[in-house]
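Morning F.,

Quick status update on the modeling queue. The single chain you submitted on Monday has been processed. Sequence for confirmation:
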Amino acid sequence: MNTTLPASAEPVRHPSGLKVIFLTEMWERYSYYGMRLLLVLYLTKALGYPRAEALSLYGLYTGLVYLTPLLGGYIADRWLGARLTAVIGAVVMMLGHFAMAFEPLLFIALGLLVVGNGLFKANNSSMVGLLYDSPDDPRRAGGYTIFYMSVNIGSLLAPLGAGTLGEVYGWHWGFASAGVGMALGLGAMLWLQPLLGRAGLRDDQTGVTRQHLPLVLAFCVGSLLLVLAVMQVSRLLSGVPMGLQLTLGVAAVVLVLGFSGRRQRGAATARPALSPVERQRVLAIAVIVFFVIFFWLGYEQTGGTMTLFADEQTDRHLFGWEIPATWFQLVNPLTIILLAPAFAALWTRLDRSRYALPDPAKMALGMITLGLGFVVMAVAQQRAEAFGHVGPLWLVVVYVLHTLGELMLSPVGLSLTSRLAPRHLAGLLMGCWMAATGVANYLAGSLEGLLAGSNIPPFVFLYGSSIGAGVLLLCLTPWLNRLTRRTPGEG
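Structure tokens below.
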């Protein structure tokens, strides 16, 4: 339960509801990463997809996963509340994961996962902040740190559970395991929801109860019909490039939501005009979000080209035992769990010293570090082509460098966007950050196809784009610093 502390006391307890969200997010991330790390291997090895088509489908799926939370947040804000929307999303995702265990249902399953994730992801995350009594509650930052650890524990368990089951015992066992993980997350939220208090509820709600079952079923049926409709439209537009199809679909959703929102707001609640300082900050966020695309374009090779490299060109034998290719993705969450506290302490100490780095500079260093990982990866690719295979240490070094880059860029960028965004545009601008990640995911899956015929090896392109974008962002840092400067009296 929430504890009320005197102003002079150091808060030591977090709301009990944080345990519920921790367990829900941990199992949801297990299911997401478990399915994601198997997808490309399943497409190429079990279904016989050509490498380029498998990577393109992977990129489309992961791209949409980061775009649909904009729609889920809108539905929660306007109609259902965060908790009920998250429960509906969890049910739809669970159905999608179990559908992945049946080969003929591949595209239906992927569609259900995209829709369910859109309903679940942003709303479960937003409930962390709603557990605390005020925005100034000093426990809030610690609460999000604990929440972030649940994400990494889930991603740590995914290769060990779903990855091992999928590679060793059969792909469908791995996908079914992801469905079980989502079911456990859903069960945690429903059975332990009294600990959440009123977090995520509308004024007219007392919790998610049996009376909501018809609504949940209606959303499940509606999600299935939506997926089938999109599949049919995609067949009709089969001659149109997938990127253009995606752009048209996003534009249609934005127009519908914008029209709906304008009708509800009316002229009396029009948004205030931006001040000159706010316009500068929005411009700074836009520039930073653009650069973020180059980072995630490289980072999200994890589930695509780098998983294929682990499977096809890495010697994974150790004392007579073959390491599953998916286990290399253990390196990222392990590194985060071990080093995230050290990075938090490092930035705090630097920020209080004369060697303080501006946030854009920290992000630029993260991009350069990512690029160094691809320098190692390009050398490993050359050696694999010359000798057939390379040792597993090459991939371990690459994943460690990429994780160090993530620790420099991701939390810093999220914090910067949250701090700079005008209050009435906070959700939209954070949505732009997520949308940039979605665009990067799509490009990551399409990269080999885009580079076809250019004679540029993908890993060479990636270290050039990552380091080049990082250096350019460093050069722009003084200008961005002026745009993001604090105004007098700002904390």
